[in-house]
Amino acid sequence: MQLTTDVVVLAQTPPSAWASAWEWAKEYVKPAAVLIPLASAYFGAKTAQGTADRNKFRDELTKEIRNTNASISLAFAVANSAMALQRQHIRDLKADFDRGRSDLIEFKRRLAAREPQANNRFEPEVRLNTLQVPKFPSSALRSHVLDRLSVTGRALHLAITLDENVEHLQDVMERRNSLVPTFAKTEGVNDEEIVHRYYGVDTGKSATDTSYADLIDGMASTLDAVIFFAAALSSDLHDHGNALAAKFRKRLRWEDAPRVHSVNFATQKASGLMPGHENYDSIMKAFVKLPPVPPSRWRRALQIVRLRRADDPTSSGMDVPPEGQKL
Known about the structure:
Elements: H1 2-11, H2 17-112, H3 138-148, H4 154-179, H5 191-199, H6 211-251, H7 266-270, H8 281-284, H9 297-311
Helix pairs in contact: 2-3, 2-6, 3-4, 4-6
């Protein structure tokens, strides 16, 4: 009888800790076995997506920096060809033309005032050589900038304006070459008429023909514009490439960004081949660089979280902002 009582008391004793653990395990082990693979799959997918996003970001920026370098090289080629034309032909042609025109005007003034002169006959030194019209890669440069780069504002305008000035320069040079044979001595046209028509100076007898003089002035001014705009565009493209490289380093901190080409025109400026900016301030200052709009606190916090997840998708922590910077 005593034995029976002990058994009953033992059966009514509360379950031990091991028994409770076993009951919990039976209740929750199966759901955990399902959740763990789901969590692994989720974070694995996030990691793969982050890697894919970084690879896409790297490829896109690398491609645009490469296209930026190509555009800088094209802009330098345009500027270099224009400077060569300036140095070999146009600079001396324009200087001789201006000096001859001034001498002719002074000669006519002295002649009208009956002032003594060393020679009563004006003998100019004219340049009637045909100039070879150069080919510039301005169309390819324009296509690169407009179609392959994400530039905005002044760089786009410079690419378009540069191409237009190159076309105008080529047209002016061809028209000048077509007028050169008309200054050859022909029967019924004396030297005085030819000289006045060459320099575009009034003869006092008939209407003044300034066609050739206008072409010389237009050729010189347009060539200066081509040189200036090509150099300015190469500088703006260099700044654009540096901005892309900074963006590359900010996102991919452990990788080296592609190098951006740099062009230096210091030697050309010292040689007097680079025109001043005075005639182009209205164009260069027309496009104002607006300061970037500061993001809100919520957007800054979101950016920090996104950067953190892009670098380590399994991490749930947030980077601590630099000292002195508030979220």
